[in-house]
Amino acid sequence: MSVNSAVRVEHLIKRYGDTLALDYFDLDVHEGEIFGLLGPNGSGKTTAINCILALLTYSEGSISVFGEPLTPTSYDLKRRIGIVPQNVAVFDELTVAENIDYFCSLYVPDRKRRRKLVDEAIEFVGLEEFRTFRPKKLSGGLLRRLNIACGIAHRPELIFFDEPTVAVDPQSRNAILEGIQRLNREGATVVYTSHYMEEVEQICDRVLIMDHGRHLALGTSEELKGMIELGERITVETLDLGEHGRSAEQVLDHIRNLGFVIEAVYDGRELSIRCRRGAHNLLDVLDVLKAENVSIGHLTSRPPTLNDVFLELTGTALRD
Fold this sequence. Notes:
Blueprint: E1 5-16, E2 19-30, E3 34-38, H1 45-52, E4 60-65, H2 75-78, E5 81-84, H3 96-105, H4 111-125, H5 140-152, E6 158-162, H6 170-185, E7 189-194, H7 197-203, E8 206-211, E9 214-219, H8 221-225, E10 232-237, H9 248-256, E11 261-266, E12 270-275, H10 281-291, E13 299-302, H11 306-314
Parallel strand pairs: 3-7, 3-8, 5-6, 6-7
Antiparallel strand pairs: 1-2, 1-4, 8-9, 10-12, 10-13, 11-12
Protein name: ABC transporter ATP-binding protein
GO molecular function, one term: ATP hydrolysis activity
Organism: Bifidobacterium merycicum
């Protein structure tokens, strides 16, 4: 089955003076998918998007959108694209409906058709009760929804969402994520950038992890997790790891000698164990703790997350 590329970036280099913002960066977004760009602030996500949209020039490399090069004057191609920027970009002097109508008019000159599209966009983001409000009267979450409506009202085939849930409440965040998934079901290809790993894991078909302008790893969430050594993280609340005749370090050594254990640490309240993949890791750890007469409080076992993938690939946690 052949796959068409909505966006293809090859060996992209972007410099700001002596700073290398994109370092031979590669990207291939398939039509019809939600593609996640996961990386911390400063990793190059926004720079990559601005280069793709011809908002920034770049030093070397090539970019195509729907198989065509995108230049500042590729107006027909730009009509097929929507952008929801990280920073809210609306006019304070205009109402909700007027803002959406203005941005939609950049792509759709016909007023009758535009009126229908504006109404649909307002309904889509749940701002029916606020259509006559000006932005300053909206909460942060509602303002983010307005930002989205302005970017998608013209029904683009390709939509870039750049950190759309920054500083919003959980209810608005869920509404935004559900809206993005609905847009995708209705046919839009989505590029979603974030440093919130749980959002990327929740909605994206494939994920590219990047940092310092470089492509680090690409795959589904499960494929990315399969690339790392960590297979399970076990945590045990206990206050008596070092009692009953043995020191805490002796018990830790016993646990570390289990063949699947990568690391075991104890902070006086919680025992944290990083394990390789195995069918009986938790049972084997519990057998050791039982043999050492360790009292167990809250116990958890969880598979690796994309943050664990990032940590193993880069040596640092996913920073904000």
